[in-house]
Amino acid sequence: MRPITIITGGSRGIGAATARWLARAGHDLVLGYRGNRDGAEQVAAEATAHGGRCLPVRADVGQESDVDRLFAAAAELGTITGLVNNAGLTAHIADLADTPVAAIRQVIDVNFLGTVLCARRAAQVMSTRRGGAGGAIVNISSSAATLGSPHEYVHYAGAKAAVDAFTVGLAKELAEDGVRVNAVAPGLVRTDIHAGAGVPERIETAVSRVPVGRAGEPEEIAPAIGWLLGPEATYTSGAVLRVAGGL
Ligand code: NAP
């Protein structure tokens, strides 16, 4: 039976690279996106070229009704066995005192609340004690969770630290339900997230902090996510796997 996996934020960046990796590994996919339908359809076309199914679905992870729609679309494909909680944004780069409240709310809503809402639905449908087939959840955290990100986005770091704590707790809560829960914490990765926060040159300005001396590519994060979801990681739960070039 092919695994059926939902990836939130699958239209570009780390989510898109993960979709390509999982499609090659034989997953059928549902790709959530917020607004970039063309990107999601392009990624879906690349994924289906590997022989599986891939359905793009517009779904804001901070909205319960959108999360329900995302899971309903996945259920049409069959039994859901995987969730990658990847949708995220940094939104604004500044000291906290200069950060608008709306940006803070958005960062917490998408990075933390969105992860919680999607994991909640996944727990409902994947738990073997509730009639599901079991499975795995991978939450995308950040090296920011332990570094704190001063002068950039301390509230984003806090939201990602919350994702780490949530991962540890939910892994324990779902251990007897046949559902493993882990996180991947990327460091500085070359995606549009930095331009989305208004600082497209952030890779160049932040790279000197990275011990290996360069930014990572989304394709270097995806295999860690794929491994945690897959059959070789059956004894791994509650882990936060740092993929950050030594950061
Ligand atoms: P990205 O290239 O900016 O892509 C973000 C993705 O999230 C897009 O697919 C976007 O959809 C989606 N998204 C944004 N807001 C959403 C919402 N409210 N509901 C649903 N989807 C939403 O970002 P990325 O760098 O790949 O980041 C992926 C994850 O890695 C995030 O959780 C991020 O915090 C984490 N991370 C990234 C880095 C880095 O340096 N890049 C480092 C550490 C952690 P649309 O395309 O439709 O807008």
From TrEMBL:
Signal peptide: none annotated. One of its GO terms (molecular function) is oxidoreductase activity, acting on CH-OH group of donors. Pfam families: adh_short_C2 (PF13561). The keyword Oxidoreductase applies. This is SDR family oxidoreductase. The keyword Signal does not apply. InterPro entries: NAD(P)-bd_dom_sf, Sc_DH/Rdtase_CS, SDR_fam.
